[in-house]
Structure formats: C-alpha cells, structure tokens
TrEMBL record:
Keywords: Electron transport, FAD, Flavoprotein, FMN, Heme, Iron, Metal-binding, Monooxygenase, NADP, Oxidoreductase, Transport. Coiled coil: none annotated. In the N-terminal section; belongs to the cytochrome P450 family. Residues 690-923 form the FAD-binding FR-type domain. Residues 477-506, 552-584, 917-936 are annotated as: Disordered. CDD domains: CYP120A1. GO terms for molecular function: aromatase activity; FMN binding; heme binding; iron ion binding; NADPH-hemoprotein reductase activity. This is Bifunctional cytochrome P450/NADPH--P450 reductase. Residues 514-649 form the Flavodoxin-like domain. Pfam families: FAD_binding_1, Flavodoxin_1, p450. Its EC number is 1.14.14.1, 1.6.2.4.
Length: 1060
C-alpha cells in the first residue's frame, strides 16, 4: 500500500442533479459509453460528458456512490486481495434473482459458492478441458459447414452465429445437452430469455430506489419473471434428463462433477438449487464472453490486414489443410497473441468491481470507505500509455507474444485482467481459451473473410459487450467446396491419468512402502500423483497411501500447482504449514516436489511449489532431488513430468532406499515390459503427415574447400508456402534406406509391410536410457554366453564399447543374432523423428517461393548408420552431382524478425560462424527503398569469421549492399586478421564502442544470432559499454542494476536468436 500523504485529496465528481446525482447521465443501452473519460476505441463520445475527470472519479446514484478508477496504477492496487474483495454490483444483484449463489454472483461469504468452487475446480483443469476438445470440434465444424453452404455472397450476422456456437459448445461440453442452434433460424428460447433477462437486470439496476417496486414497470417485471422461469425450467429439464439416464455414471462432464462431486473440505455435495444456479451461470458466462471475444477478434483482424495475413499464415504452416488436433493449438503463438490483444482493447467484460474491506486510501491520498464499490474500468486501464506506450489504443498482436507479454506482466503487475482477479476470477478461462483458439484456427484455415465496408463499430451491452450489427462474408479458400456432411471428430484424447491408460497398477504386498501426496485445484497434479502410483511397483516400491497433502505423514514425494490463487484447497494444512511462523521440525522427512503453473499468472508462476520446496528444506527435511517444474500453457506437462520422473525421481529413490527387486512379479531391475503391441499388416496403405509439405531441392553446391566444408543449397517451397526474412526452414528427416533394410532383415519383415502400433501404457517414446536397453537385450538372450556378454556391456563396458563406439541397439542385435527381441520392444527404444531447423539465408525479394540454406558439414557421424532418427543430419547428405531432384518434407518456423518500418532506426547484428547467413536475408529489403523518401540509416553488422580466405562468404553481395547504403559491415577474424579485425565479435564490439553508443542513443535495435557462448560474451561487453557511457555522463551503476537493465531490453531493443 502506498505511504499516505500528509493531506488526503478528495475524489473528483462530475456535476450531477440534486438528489438524483448521475442517474440520468447513464445511457441504459450503453452504460460504458456514458462513463466520464470514455474509452476512445468504442467511438462513443456522449456530449453531456465533455469534461473528463482523469484517473479516478466518484459517481452518485441517488445517494449511493461508486468510485471509478481507470489507470493501471490504481487497478493494480485494488487487485490486492488482502485489502479489497469482489463486490456484487447493482446489476449483479439483479442477476442473482435468476442464478442466486452461482459462481459469478455469490457473495464472498457464501458457503454454497465455496463448496461449488472446490468441487468444480478439477473439472476446469487442463486435462479435463483437453478431453472436451472433440465436442468443441464438433460444434465448430457445424459453424464452418453452415458458413460454407451460405456461399461467398451471403452476409453473415457474426455475433448471432458466434452466440449459437458458444452456447452449443458450453451446453454440449458441460452437460452433454444439444441446443442445435445451427438447425433453426430462431435462437433457442433459453437464449432469447437470457438476453432479455440480462438487459432487464441492467435496466432494473438503474431504477430510482425512491419509487415503489412495480409501480411503473409492471409489464416489464412480469416479463422478467417469465424469463427467469424459462432459465430455471431449462436447467431443471437438463438435470432431470441426466438423472433419468442409466449410463450417466460414465460421463465425466461438469454436470457429472456437480451431481457426484464431494467437497474435500466439508464432505458435502452440491444441492439441486446450487446445481441449477451454476448450470445457468455456465450457459450465461460461458457463451456471452467467448462470443464477444471472437466477434471483436475477427473485427480487429479484418481492420488490420497485416495481422490477418500473419494469423492465417501461421494456421497454414502449423495445421496445413488437414484436421485440426488439440496439439496444434499450443503451436499457434501469434493466434494466441491476437486473442490476448483483443481482450486488451475490447474486453467483453470491460470492468469489474471490488470494495474495500476497511476504510483506506488509494495511492495513499484518495479516501475510500469500507464497502464502497470501486469499478476497475478495464476499457481505459488496458490502454494506459504508461504501460503499453503511446500506441496503446492501437491493435498490435505482436506486443502480446509470449516474451513481451511476460515482460509486461512482470514490470506492470495486473496490467491485463480480462478474466477478473484472484479467487473470484473466471474459473472457465482454460475452456474459453481452447474454444476460441480452435474456432479461429478452423475458420482461418477454411475461409477468407470480407467485412462490410460500410460497417462502423458499434457496441451492444448487456452483462458483456459485443459488436452491434456486424456482418461479413465468408469465402471458401483455395477452391474448397462445402462438405456434403460432417467428416466426424477426432477420438477423445487420453487424459493421461494413469500410466497404463486405465486404472492404477494393482496394489502389491511387496516393495518398499511409500506415500504420495498432492496439492491440486484443477486436478492436474492429482493426475501426476496417480501416474507415480501406477509406476511405483515396477521400480520396487509399494504405494500405501495416495492422498492430498493434508494427510502428509513421513516421506512424501509431492506435486504442487501454482496459479493466481493461494495454495490449493487440497493442500491444507500441510502445504500451508511451511508458510506459518512456527512450523514443526521436519528432520527425518525425505521429500521431492514437482510443480505445475501457468505462465500467464506471472506474479505467482511456480511460486507455491518453489516456496514449499525451499521451506521444507529450511525446516530440516531432506530434499531427495531438485524440484521439477512444468508450464501447463505449453501443453507438455506430462512430457515434462515423465522426464523428471524417469531421469531424477526413480533413480534417486532407488539409490537412497535400494529396493531388492521391482515389486511387479516377473520383472527385474533391467527388464522392461513391452510398451507396444505390434501387428504386421501386409496390405499396402499410406497416411501422410498433416503438418508438413513437400519441397524440392533444386541446387546444392560447395562454397569452400578444405576441412571446414560449407555448402549452399536452394530449395523450391511447396505451393502456397511463403516466408519472411528471419524465418527458419524446418526439415523432417527420414531414416536412411540402408538402415531401414537392416531392420527389416533382422526382424524378417516383408519390405512393403505396414506396422500398426497400439500402446497399452501412457508413455512417450523413446525409453531414454541406453544401459537399460542393453539389459533388455540381455534378458531376451537365449544362451548364457550372450546374456553374460550383454550384461557386461551394460555395466563395465558401456562407456567404452557402447557409448564410445556409438553402438546402436541395431548394431547389438546384428552382433548377437540369438537375442529374441520382438519388433515392438525394439521400436519402443527408438527416439522419435523430429524436425531439424535451419536458418534461411535468402530474402523473399530474391525469389518469393525459393529459399537458400548455408550450413557446415559435420563429419562426426556414427560409425554405422543408425535408426536414431533425430541424430541423422539430412542436409549434409544431399548429393552434389546431377540426379533427379530430392524431395524433402518441411514446415516453416518463425524466428528472428527485422524491424517492420524504416526510418532513423539502425540495427546491428552480431553473428558467429557463417555470420553472413542471417544478415543476408535482411539486407535485400533494406537496399530497396522508395527513391522519393529520405534514405534510411545503414544497418551495421558485426560478423565473426575464422579465416578471411575461406569464411568470408557472400562477399560480393555484401560489398554491393554496402555500396547501396543498406549495410556497413565490421568483420572480426578469430583465427587471422590484424588490428580491429583481429579477435572475436565481442572484441570488435568493444573496439567500435564509440561508433555504437551514438547509434544506441538514437534508438537503434540489436539483433544477435549465434551460440550461447557468443551471446553471453556479447552481453558482458554490452554491459561494459553502458558502464563506460554512464561514467562519462557522471553516473554510476552497480553490476546487478546493469544486468537488470540489460534483461529489460530483451525482446524489445535487444533480440537474440541463440541456437544451443
């Protein structure tokens, strides 16, 4: 809390009417536009509020006052849950007539809310939301099909169709109920009743309290009661239908959670009234906000063609033309940024209200009484120039890409609050985000959109806001035709709760006993704990207890989440105990912690698990292994956990407790149950990858001679694929034909056989322990001599004879032909194919559909060709002699991007070996400028090149670009040269610092590409340059301050592309 000033400052108040105050000043159809200092982005400037009251003002409604704050500084202060709590506004008080103690409208002390919240949190966890993807895809496909059949000339009422979409989606996903809104020109009666109900709630909130209830609005009040009856009767019919189903116990949706869930704190279930309250709440909040977000997102994209093109291009490069799968959604960073930026400038809930728990001062000077409503006006705070710059009103998705989004939230906490705050924030955020990403990706994949050129953004406001009367046309892309019928949905994703995809492993009576505990709100950490329990018996341990942290006792490997809230409910009191002032001693306790969190909650990201981990150690507990952490927003939580579990947890447990043998009968420490069932199919079929396309290598030549061979290849991109300066080309490798034939011979398979793989356990290839693989071969040997030799190789001879000679599993199988290994076990040992990324060295201004790659040939290849798919470099093996064009499979990857506008900005690039490669793709664009405009400042390049005679690649091109004024090159030769040119790039930077400093002062930007070692060296010199500059200015700065300054530049004025 800011220090109070000596004298308080009265909160300014617009002029109002006697007694009535500002009641008559509020437009009932658009209250947001009636606020003093209205947001410019809504193009609504009421004449009666020409005066503007700045960051804070107070409104008076017939004696009832409300404070409105509209800057980030004030919003950030009111988000402190120790001083402020959610208040139920007058509008929400009216909404309570229909939904009572629903999650959105309940009072802070409501026990019904607390019970429902604890029961429903796991149902909104990442795993549960992921499992709802097929239903989301089903409804999104219905929308796409409807628009495709409309034809290219039919105007589409955007907000109406998005309302149908989001209502059907939340109903199908949460309660398996179909409104079938796309099959009728009229919206379902529930939707009409809900819209009228919400509008009337706003109108009733503005009625004068002095007039008798019902005196002037009898007909409207009767309609209001009928609308409530429609809402509650619909919810009751859904509830009755579910209870009448005999198979309802198999469902795992939100309605099932409400019917069968038990509050872990009180042991109570939700009442029927509470279930109906929350069913209606989900249908209201779950579709109003998302439909508004999607409508605003498409409006902004269609008003900003560059952003539209980037979003559509990203969908094309990630998804292609095939079905959209749930894993695609985590690979759409620009589309993610589009949604964030839309919610910044057009949040469908443009304000939220809190109240002070006690009399307090805002900013240390503005007095606010206990219980007085404070409206956080996000429509203004989200465009605060102090946070988002002078262009804060502009729609720029780039500012919301992950790196800058994280920086903004770290520097300006609570600067982005479209989902509310803290414990009363939106519980359905992950649901809405997955739905919105899927719908946008599907629509951009299939359609081009044309907005009505006469349309001017207007706002329709009920409980939320959305564009009014917005229409556009949807035109199928690339000659696509409307489908005759739905092509179906992908199968349900595995929730990954257990290692074997079913129930946890059967309890055993052997093995070392252990207790596994978790703290979890959303259910993710609970699922990870169940994974450990399922795997325990295979490692020689016995799970005696799997429970939440409040039952902790003894040794505790534990998993903990962190989000926007205090420690999870199912971590009390054990997890909270380390946070108390006088916790009990924990000597003799051995523990391990794995934590989950979401990067968007920057203030609490991994805070709780880290605090638990450190505090337990401080209190005397023995940390078994370093903490494991995962970001659930990256959709790789189970992969992260498996790596930590296999590489750290189980090895440490075995080292500490030394189990005699695995607890599962028939297993030994070196054996592995077959993870895969394999069926060999002789009929020939093919299934192409959906995320790559075929490109053609048209030229390959050598640039240098001698031992350090460097090559140049030219590749024709697949039709429809484009690129920008700064992109990667990602190449999907393939196994050498010779190696594949060796495998087929070893396992006696027909050359055209197809292999169908089924997995019985939840696992991620590969089984990443080479010694373990050798032991598996030893177990499969049928004679004692072979078994003994393989056992020796897995132990004493492993480093020298297996690792040292790069000996593969296939090599060992050929060396020991009596090993009877099935192909399923063999494949489970193989690492998966992964793309290899190469920096593009050309510019699209040269040939828009061709790219060039410049690379070194690494001769340290394995002694024999191996079926280790990720270690086989594809490009160095391309032939230099004439032969039919080689085809490769490739997607594009966006990476280091140059500045998008010319002007005074100069930029310098420091590049390591083959330094010209990234710069060569930027200079052609810089060399082409409008002759009518003033020439831009030349770009400065620092290039690190070992030897002038062999490594100064593309010298003629760079000389020409220097002549045109596009670039000024400063070279650094690490193995030759004299004077300033001798040394490494950091040495040249220091030598030229007096040329660099003026450019930096003028606003230059830096682009650094190279290895981590080079990046760190350049950073250290850059800090030294700043220190020298400050000394000349008569200023001093500590090393920590200098490094903090440098970190603040990253991804803003200093961008790095580090490749190791």
């Amino acid at each position: 809390m800011p220090e109070p000033v000596e004298e308080t400052v009265p909160i300014p108040e617009p002029q109002g009417l006697p007694l009535l105050g500002h009641v008559r000043s509020i437009n009932p159809d658009f209250p947001l536009g009636s606020m003093p200092n209205p947001p410019r982005l809504f193009h609504y400037h009421p004449a009666d509020h020409a005066h503007r009251k700045g960051e804070i003002y107070r409104l008076n409604f017939a004696g009832s006052t409300t404070v409105v704050v509209s800057t980030h500084e004030l919003v950030n202060e009111t988000c402190d849950e120790k001083r402020f709590q959610k208040t139920i506004s007058k509008t929400l008080q009216q909404v309570r007539n229909g939904v009572h103690d629903g999650l959105f409208t309940a009072h802070n002390n409501s026990e019904e809310w607390a019970i429902a919240h604890r029961i429903l949190m796991p149902a909104f966890g990442p795993l549960s939301i992921r499992n709802m993807y097929p239903e989301m895809h089903d409804v999104a496909a219905q929308l796409a099909m409807k628009w495709a059949r409309h034809g290219p000339s039919a105007p589409i009422h955007v907000t109406d169709d998005f309302t149908r979409l989001t209502l059907d989606t939340i109903a199908l996903c949460s309660m398996d109920f179909r409104f079938n809104s796309f099959y009728s020109p009229q919206l379902h009666p529930f939707v009409e009743a809900m819209g009228d109900f919400l509008k009337e709630c706003g109108a009733r909130a503005q009625r004068l309290p002095l007039l008798p209830a019902g005196l002037l609005h009898r007909a409207r009040d009767q309609k209001y009661e009928r609308d409530i009856e429609v809402l509650r009767s619909t919810a009751q019919s859904v509830l009755d239908a579910r209870r009448a189903e005999r198979s309802s116990n198999d469902r795992k949706d939100l309605l099932s959670a409400m019917l069968r869930g038990v509050d872990p704190k009180t042991g109570r279930r939700m009442s029927d009234d509470s279930i109906m309250d929350n069913l209606i709440t989900f249908l209201i909040a779950g579709h109003e906000t998302t439909s508004g977000t999607l409508s605003f997102a498409f409006y902004q994209l269609l008003r900003h063609p560059d952003a539209y093109a980037k979003a559509q291009q990203e969908v094309g490069s990630v998804v292609g033309t095939g079905p959209i799968h749930v894993d695609h959604l985590s690979r759409l960073p620009f589309l993610n940024a589009v949604l964030r930026e839309t919610l910044r400038v057009n949040a469908p809930i443009p304000m939220f209200a809190v109240e002070a728990k006690e009399d307090t001062l805002l900013l240390g000077k503005y007095p606010v009484k206990k219980g007085e409503p404070i409206v956080n006006l996000l429509a203004r705070a989200h465009v605060d120039p102090a946070v988002f710059g002078e262009d804060a009103d502009e729609f720029k998705p780039e500012r919301m890409l992950d790196a800058n989004f994280d920086r903004l939230n770290n520097e300006f906490p609570n600067c982005w609050k479209p989902f509310g705050n803290g414990a009363r924030g939106c519980i359905g955020r992950p649901f809405a985000w997955q739905e919105a990403l899927l719908v946008m990706a599907m629509l951009l994949q299939n359609f081009n959109f044309v907005l009505d050129p006469k349309y001017t953004l207007g706002i329709k406001q009920t409980l939320t806001i959305k564009p009014a009367d917005m229409h556009f046309r949807a035109i199928l892309r690339d000659g696509l035709t409307p489908p005759p019928s739905s092509t179906g949905c992908p199968a349900k994703a595995s929730n990954g709760q257990h290692a074997n995809g079913g129930e946890p492993a059967a309890a055993t009576t052997t093995g070392i006993p252990m207790t596994i505990l978790y703290g979890s709100n959303s259910g993710t950490c609970e699922a990870l704990a169940q994974r450990v329990a399922a795997d325990a018996s295979t490692h020689g341990f016995r799970v005696d207890k799997l429970d939440c942290l409040d039952s902790a006792n003894g040794k505790l490997p534990a998993t903990n989440p962190s989000s926007s809230s205090p420690p999870p409910t199912r971590a009390s009191p054990r997890q909270r105990r380390p946070l108390s002032a006088s916790p009990p001693p924990l000597e003799g306790v051995t523990y391990a912690v794995f934590g989950c969190g979401h990067r968007d909650w920057t203030q609490t990201f991994h805070r709780v698990p880290k605090l638990v981990d450190c505090t337990l150690a401080d209190r005397g507990a023995d940390r078994l292994v370093d903490i494991g952490l995962s970001d659930v927003s990256a959709a790789a939580t189970f992969s992260d956990f498996e790596t930590w579990e296999d590489d750290k947890l189980w090895p440490a447990l075995k080292e500490r407790f030394k189990p005699e043998a695995d607890g599962r009968p028939g297993s030994s420490a070196g054996s592995a149950t077959t993870a895969l069932k394999v069926q060999v199919l002789n009929p020939r079929t093919s299934a192409l990858r959906q995320d790559v396309k075929e490109a053609v290598v048209v030229e390959a030549r050598t640039l240098t001679s001698g031992s350090q061979e460097k090559r140049h290849i030219e590749i024709k991109l697949p039709e429809g694929m484009t690129y920008s300066a700064g992109d990667y080309l990602a190449v999907l490798p393939s196994n050498p034909e010779q190696t594949v034939r060796r495998v087929m011979r070893r396992f006696k398979l027909q050359w055209d056989a197809q292999i169908l793989i089924e997995s019985e356990i939840h696992t991620s290839l590969p089984v990443n322990t080479a010694q373990k693989n050798v032991l598996v071969l030893a177990d499969a040997a049928v004679d004692d001599k072979t078994k003994a030799e393989l056992t020796r190789l897995a132990n004493d001879g492993f480093d020298k004879e297996v690792t040292g000679k790069r000996c593969s599993v296939l090599d060992l199988l050929e060396r020991f032909p009596t090993v009877e290994l099935d192909v399923g076990t063999f494949l489970s040992m193989m690492p998966p194919i992964r793309v290899r990324q190469y920096s593009i060295s050309s510019s699209p201004l040269w040939k828009p559909d061709h790219v060039t790659i410049t690379y070194s040939v690494v001769h340290a290849l394995p002694l024999r060709p191996r079926l280790l798919l990720w270690r086989r470099l594809l490009l160095p093996r391309l032939p230099l002699r004439r032969r039919p064009p080689r085809r490769i499979r490739t997607p594009l990857r966006r990476t280091l991007q140059p500045p998008r506008r010319s002007g005074a900005d100069a930029h310098r690039m420091r590049l390591r070996r083959h330094g010209p490669r990234p710069l060569s793709r930027l200079c052609p664009r810089a060399s082409r400028h409008d002759p009518q405009r003033a020439p831009t400042r030349p770009r400065h390049a620092l290039l690190r090149l070992p030897i002038p005679e062999t490594d100064d690649l593309y010298r003629e091109e760079f000389d020409e670009w220097e002549r045109l004024g596009a670039v000024e090159v400063r070279r650094a030769y690490s193995q030759a040269g004299a004077g300033a040119e001798a040394g490494h790039v950091q040495d040249r930077l220091w030598a030229d610092r007096y040329d660099v400093i003026p450019l930096w002062v003028e606003g230059a930007k830096v682009y650094m590409c190279g290895a981590r070692k080079v990046s760190d060296a350049v950073r250290d010199v850059w800090v030294k340059v700043r220190e020298e500059y400050l000394r000349k200015e008569g200023k001093t700065e500590g090393e920590d301050e200098a490094r903090t300054w440098f970190e603040g530049l990253r991804n803003v004025r200093y961008v790095m592309d580090v490749f190791d």
